[in-house]
Specification:
27 strands; GMP Synthetase, Chain A, domain 3; 19 helices; alpha/beta; ANL_N_sf; nine-stranded mixed β-sheet; five-stranded parallel β-sheet
């Protein structure tokens, strides 16, 4: 099915075109709000951003990097964003790398991609020095934080911009006049996973431009907005929605200093828009509820306030949420009007509570292979348990629908990737007639809302042919305040010939100790407490979905940088 656009958007063909238009529209407005070493913020305008892009692009071409692959390995920063826009705007192909990867995996991905230069921050300097001794194909290492060049191939980012500026003043137009083929690869994005399993997604300028325009056709975002970039920019969700969409609309972007500084940074920059993942939102929600529910009576007051807020807002069109829940808004900086949650499904109770408090949470659905957003709860409709409706211009349908109404989600549109880098077999498995077979299972209701039930490869099939989605069972387990996180899978029982539901459960020890007023608790006692919780949760599910066996795990699961649990043997084993 397709969705009609709510808002008309200006046409862009590529990111170079986008920035040129944004400079014409918002030139003197701040593109970035940057914190210096002494904790002071200063702005960098769209005009200044364009000057940096043109200077850096000219310098990179002068180095002989035209049409080559350039990696970025850094924390979120204005330099990260400038580098990305520069490379995709007429130099070559950008390869954003996960800054949390160990050295051997970074080395492997750089080798697989055939990277010719890498732009990095000082945190990775030691690794880059090691890499320079091992790799013969990397021509330049560009240090964002270095003041001066070192030798012929370790270059200072700021000096490079200065050199490019001089070259421009002498009339060098190699970068300014560089033509962009919208159908050629401009970004190579490696999916999360172990190095050998990570696929390189090839995205074109058309893919990115299409997705930017599609998002903006369904949501109100404008130059009055500002955003705090929290999630890693190498991930397409943050890169497209949290960065490129903001640049398209003339917003001001600032950068989080780390997860432990989220609240501090929110209160410093007071953003209006945030891109977050469910884990961060659920942790914030848990803290809010915990602080407001110190006693039985205060919990009653909180629940009553939420009910009153919903009644006044939805039935009488009276909005007192910001006043009623001022302390909650203060945590978010006091100005947040929109939070887009992605990368995984959010607990509807969390989004409903926060919405009742005046923090609008909308859920979307995306895949790296689609640049990445394909659906969102938009300005004309919202369902807290849904991934929303397809973006304008993107066709989504369900293939091979089963008796339960569930099938594989298929996507067609100009945002669908070119394919997997140097992997025609994997490409052929998912791309058929320009349609992406996602491997995600779900259904679309009569109103056009998309509901995702799980991953095709994760489904547990019973001997009677019934499908069990691990993600659904995990969502039930998550309802217990004693369960921090869980991982569900199917285990074949030879005696019964049945595939049974198994789970590993990470316990929230602080919650157990606080609620049960215990300082010390044995492993046996913990097991009995969780056993009782699982027993109650099982009553809420059909017999065939119930957890038959579980183990209690002390360490949290290995996760991607967007806080999704990796479903690999290292977690289950």
């Amino acid at each position: 099915m397709k969705t009609e656009p709510i808002y008309k958007q200006r046409k862009i063909t590529d990111l170079k075109d986008m920035i040129s238009q944004s400079v014409n529209l918002f030139g003197n407005k701040d593109a970035f709000l940057i914190k210096n070493n002494v904790g002071e913020y200063h702005g960098r305008t769209y005009l200044e951003l364009k000057e940096d892009i043109d200077s850096l692009g000219t310098a990179l071409i002068d180095l002989g990097l035209k049409n080559k692959k350039i990696a970025i390995l850094s924390q979120n920063s204005a330099q990260w964003c400038t580098s990305y826009l520069t490379i995709t705007g007429g130099v070559g192909v950008v390869v954003p790398l996960d800054r949390e990867l160990p050295f051997n995996e970074i080395e492997n991905l750089i080798s697989r991609a055939g990277v010719s230069a890498i732009i990095f921050s000082s945190k990775h300097r030691k690794d880059m020095l090691s890499l320079s001794k091992l790799s013969e194909f990397i021509e330049y290492y560009i240090d964002i934080d270095a003041i001066n060049d070192e030798g012929n191939n370790f270059l200072s980012y700021s000096r490079l911009i200065e050199k490019g500026k001089v070259s421009l003043e002498k009339g060098n137009r190699a970068y300014l006049d560089a033509e962009i083929d919208e159908n050629e690869m401009c970004a190579l994005i490696f999916t999360s996973g172990t190095t050998d399993l990570a696929k390189g997604v090839m995205l074109s300028s058309k893919n990115l431009a299409t997705d930017i325009m599609a998002v903006c056709s369904m949501l109100t975002i404008n130059e009055a907005d500002s955003a705090l970039s929290i999630l890693p920019l190498h991930h397409t969700y943050e890169c497209t929605a949290g960065f490129l969409v903001m640049m398209y609309n003339g917003c001001c972007l600032s950068f989080n200093e780390g997860l432990k500084y989220i609240v501090k940074n929110l209160q410093e920059v007071k953003p209006t828009i945030l891109m977050l993942v469910p884990l961060i939102l659920e942790n914030m929600h848990k803290k809010i509820i915990k602080q407001a529910s110190g006693t039985f009576f205060s919990k009653l007051k909180l629940n009553a306030a939420i009910e009153i807020s919903n009644f006044l807002y939805y039935f009488l069109k009276i909005d007192i949420r910001k006043k009623l829940f001022k302390q909650v808004h203060d945590i978010f900086g006091g100005r947040v009007r929109l939070v887009i949650s992605g990368a995984a499904a959010i607990n509807p109770d969390v989004s409903n509570d926060l919405c009742a408090m005046g923090i609008r949470i909308i859920q979307g659905y995306g895949l790296t292979e689609c640049a990445p957003i394909v659906a969102v709860n938009n300005d004309q409709g919202y369902r807290s348990d849904s991934a929303g409706k397809p973006l304008a211009g993107i066709d989504i349908w369900i293939d091979n629908i089963g008796d339960d109404g569930i099938g594989e989600i298929v996507i067609r549109g100009d945002n669908v990737m070119l394919g997997y880098y140097e992997n025609p077999i994997a490409t052929h498995k998912v791309l058929k007639n320009s349609c992406l077979y996602t491997g995600d299972l779900g259904y679309i209701d009569e109103e056009g809302y998309i509901f995702i039930t799980g991953r095709k490869k994760n489904v547990i099939v019973t001997k009677n042919g019934k499908n069990i989605f691990p993600e659904e069972v995990e969502s039930y387990l998550a309802k217990s305040s004693y369960v921090k996180e869980s991982l569900v899978w199917g285990r074949f029982d030879e005696e019964s010939g049945e595939t049974e539901v198994n789970a590993q459960i990470v316990v929230d020890m602080d919650e157990i100790k606080e609620k049960l007023h215990l300082n010390i608790i044995s492993k046996d006692e913990i097991y009995k407490i969780i056993q009782a919780e699982v027993k109650e949760i099982n009553k809420q599910m059909p017999l065939y979905k119930r957890v038959k066996e579980f183990t209690v795990r002390e360490e949290e699961f290995i996760k991607t940088t967007t806080k999704k649990i990796k479903r690999y043997a290292e977690n289950i084993g």
